[in-house]
């Protein structure tokens, strides 16, 4: 009974025998690990498949390449197949060429004799292999380093501006009492209701009018005044006792010093959370940079990735590979900062 | 206040860099290798003309469709762009005529299709088609052979083709018999083959006619019978484009209706896996018409350097360059001189490529007038959009075809009304 | 490691600290001259300036767009039509049957969005709550598991849509499993029920980590002695959950509900990449409708799209206010 209580209420004491709640817990957690990581791993595995293999059904879990063999009398290596002979035995042969449903094959051990095989009776011999050209080709041809630099620039600058302006606004909104404070707060929260994707046209008009079109600042500035950031920081700053500020004023600290030397350091956990979110958001931004940037040398990674979607054909093998590339920094953040992020949000996010 | 000044200063300093004299920007999208080919051709041009700096911005097609129009509306944009939406944006193209050394060359070689890209009644030369496209079908010859089904010959109807493909599907246990790209453009040639005409006598859209309904009805029936691969059309809303090429490449369907631009794509991706042939457009009651189209390279009116732009365009439109571009990209040329001279050496070792391209050249002589009129018609996209949106809903079982008919007319009328609202 | 990080931190922040010192005299002068009110204005100004230019002005412009017609993109070239666009959107014989409406796709999208929010928010709250309860137990590797559920939050919506499309399509991972179990493969995104369920499930998958953490923070703030006292009294667990856990979790649950609702109504990127609105129009949501009408289609109609987005925002504001009012009254004097 008490075990059930602790499941529904709080933590269960360790040790003792397995209770069904433990089974549920571990089943849930195991399913969680598979469900949360599995899809991303599938993407990574798929990104190493060649274009033909991507369209294969049923799909294979791992990427494969066809084995080839160097056969005497042929300059190029020939692809190998397992051929089922009429008596049901199987033999590995190399294919010279295919004409219609007929395949001309040769035994690598006996290169003189030509064997004709119906293509229904042959299966390619494959081994696990990685189509690394999915990665190499775009990285070499696509001026990848330039895109990477643009992405880093946008992410870093936008995050810095976000932290500074949002924390200043949050400071004013939490520590000063002035007319219209609630109105400002309401206005900021209300804009949460209008997502960017539905005001694209007017926003574009504004960016165009301010001359920021086709510049990285046109990507940065519209995103930095996040209502979420102001809201989060303000909620956190409200918990800082006003007495601290009063004491500092007694010591002739200026308001700027109070903000900079007292409030900001105390808000560090919330700032860290906002910083991490801002980095992830700006790194992942896609639609808006796509609209603002049309010069290739200004592309961010996410936009560069999209050039593989043509009018008539999508080059999936490149898109998947480049998607994995853009995920790498996010995964690194995850690996190195996960404790910090989750503890930070749990501790600071909502008070 | 300091912040505002600082922001303004930063904004000014980093605002879009002014176009330098001698700089020409080309906005380009790629379906295959044409981006690399054009870059190569342009590098040669730059070597010969060091005073002109040509910058190729390779962008997603989405940028051409969604972002370029807004740039153009605000009087901006690149100097040259590769676009497919030619007629509707004609007011933004630059008339190259005064800058060209030999306008007659352009009229002789590209004259037929200049109407696709200029305003009604104008004689401007805004650019040229980088490639001509024609819709048409492809068959997986190896699958047909394995099934022991003969590939339908000249004059075979749509019904013949689908029946033959069904036999292949049954024999080879394939998920479907055929697929058509999800696009209003793609089904319009076949619809014309069943007697459809989209254009009213006044040049405005005509109501959906029985010819259109006949082919749409067939598509819907084939989908509900499981003959047409359902996910291409059904699994998207609105006017989203979806190609079914991957299913053909993967030998999941023996017959695929798309167009000439797929040749390079099919050749690269299919490789030696099976033999495929281009088969033109199957016939309807009124004919066997595909639908022509193409992408054009056009000069933009808002350029600072029209002379340099004209020079780049003259180079790219010159006969040897057009020839090389077509041979390397496996695109059909739209240059009358190149077509007349013939003897294009398409650069491919794939034995399937040359006959396929020849088939498309031959099929281009069989198009009907109602189909030839569409590329230069202002409301074509309104029509295509309504067809895709509503026929997909019918296929998904949300509407009957009869219910869809007035909705399509309404959709088209809405578009026309909105565009004419001044 | 720590000292290295420390010095790196000092190096990065040193210029900032110096800059902050340098501006102090200027700001002191400003403060002396304008008083505290002036300082409040100073702190608010940068954010409000950016906010005003890039958020408020576009919203106001959007309102202006919604009262114009035609297909021109620049506002100056568009004719004023008053409430015509709104009238067109709202014209309907029977609101429960979208096909009887003038803009049937708008109403289809509205209905789909309503259903989506209903299912997604319930699923989100249920899954997040269970996960938070489990993560609140004393289990080995809690930090690790907490992070596991958070991982998808870091992925971009486009990547999320792409990953799952790659799993659910005909050649996808799910069919590989299905075939191995000896069952018939399905085209999951081609059936209205499974496609809709996929949209709900995938968006839950992508965001549940965030809500789980909010709820977990709430759970951990509940004083332990409350439970100990309840256990001592022999209170049944279901009752403890209802009487202690739920009420004390109230504020956090309210935050989760409001945020999930707002984001649910705005569902776009991941669903767009995943299903494209299909099959038919069964996963066509409002934001996609607005995006396509106003921006993406070949013949765009910015006025109609703007009107639709104003209607959507209006409904959202009302919903949020109602929800906040409800959760405040039910939470009683908790806050």
TrEMBL record, chain A:
<feature type="transmembrane region" description="Helical">
    <location>
        <begin position="20"/>
        <end position="45"/>
    </location>
</feature>
<keyword id="KW-0472">Membrane</keyword>
<dbReference type="GO" id="GO:0005886">
    <property type="term" value="C:plasma membrane"/>
</dbReference>
<feature type="transmembrane region" description="Helical">
    <location>
        <begin position="316"/>
        <end position="337"/>
    </location>
</feature>
<feature type="transmembrane region" description="Helical">
    <location>
        <begin position="183"/>
        <end position="204"/>
    </location>
</feature>
<dbReference type="GO" id="GO:0055085">
    <property type="term" value="P:transmembrane transport"/>
</dbReference>
<feature type="transmembrane region" description="Helical">
    <location>
        <begin position="216"/>
        <end position="237"/>
    </location>
</feature>
<keyword id="KW-1003">Cell membrane</keyword>
<feature type="domain" description="ABC transmembrane type-1">
    <location>
        <begin position="148"/>
        <end position="337"/>
    </location>
</feature>
<keyword id="KW-1133">Transmembrane helix</keyword>
<dbReference type="InterPro" id="IPR035906">
    <property type="entry name" value="MetI-like_sf"/>
</dbReference>
<feature type="transmembrane region" description="Helical">
    <location>
        <begin position="147"/>
        <end position="171"/>
    </location>
</feature>
<keyword id="KW-0812">Transmembrane</keyword>
<dbReference type="Pfam" id="PF00528">
    <property type="entry name" value="BPD_transp_1"/>
</dbReference>
<feature type="transmembrane region" description="Helical">
    <location>
        <begin position="258"/>
        <end position="281"/>
    </location>
</feature>
TrEMBL record, chain B:
<comment type="similarity">
    <text>Belongs to the bacterial solute-binding protein 1 family.</text>
</comment>
<keyword id="KW-0732">Signal</keyword>
<dbReference type="InterPro" id="IPR006059">
    <property type="entry name" value="SBP"/>
</dbReference>
<dbReference type="Pfam" id="PF01547">
    <property type="entry name" value="SBP_bac_1"/>
</dbReference>
<dbReference type="GO" id="GO:0042597">
    <property type="term" value="C:periplasmic space"/>
</dbReference>
<feature type="signal peptide">
    <location>
        <begin position="1"/>
        <end position="21"/>
    </location>
</feature>
<protein>
    <submittedName>
        <fullName>Carbohydrate ABC transporter substrate-binding protein</fullName>
    </submittedName>
</protein>
<dbReference type="InterPro" id="IPR050490">
    <property type="entry name" value="Bact_solute-bd_prot1"/>
</dbReference>
Automatic annotation (TrEMBL), chain C:
<protein>
    <submittedName>
        <fullName>Sugar ABC transporter permease</fullName>
    </submittedName>
</protein>
<dbReference type="InterPro" id="IPR051393">
    <property type="entry name" value="ABC_transporter_permease"/>
</dbReference>
<feature type="transmembrane region" description="Helical">
    <location>
        <begin position="115"/>
        <end position="135"/>
    </location>
</feature>
<dbReference type="GO" id="GO:0005886">
    <property type="term" value="C:plasma membrane"/>
</dbReference>
<feature type="transmembrane region" description="Helical">
    <location>
        <begin position="240"/>
        <end position="262"/>
    </location>
</feature>
<dbReference type="Pfam" id="PF00528">
    <property type="entry name" value="BPD_transp_1"/>
</dbReference>
<feature type="transmembrane region" description="Helical">
    <location>
        <begin position="195"/>
        <end position="219"/>
    </location>
</feature>
<keyword id="KW-0813">Transport</keyword>
<feature type="transmembrane region" description="Helical">
    <location>
        <begin position="147"/>
        <end position="167"/>
    </location>
</feature>
<feature type="transmembrane region" description="Helical">
    <location>
        <begin position="304"/>
        <end position="326"/>
    </location>
</feature>
<dbReference type="InterPro" id="IPR035906">
    <property type="entry name" value="MetI-like_sf"/>
</dbReference>
<keyword id="KW-1003">Cell membrane</keyword>
<keyword id="KW-0472">Membrane</keyword>
<comment type="similarity">
    <text>Belongs to the binding-protein-dependent transport system permease family.</text>
</comment>
<keyword id="KW-0812">Transmembrane</keyword>
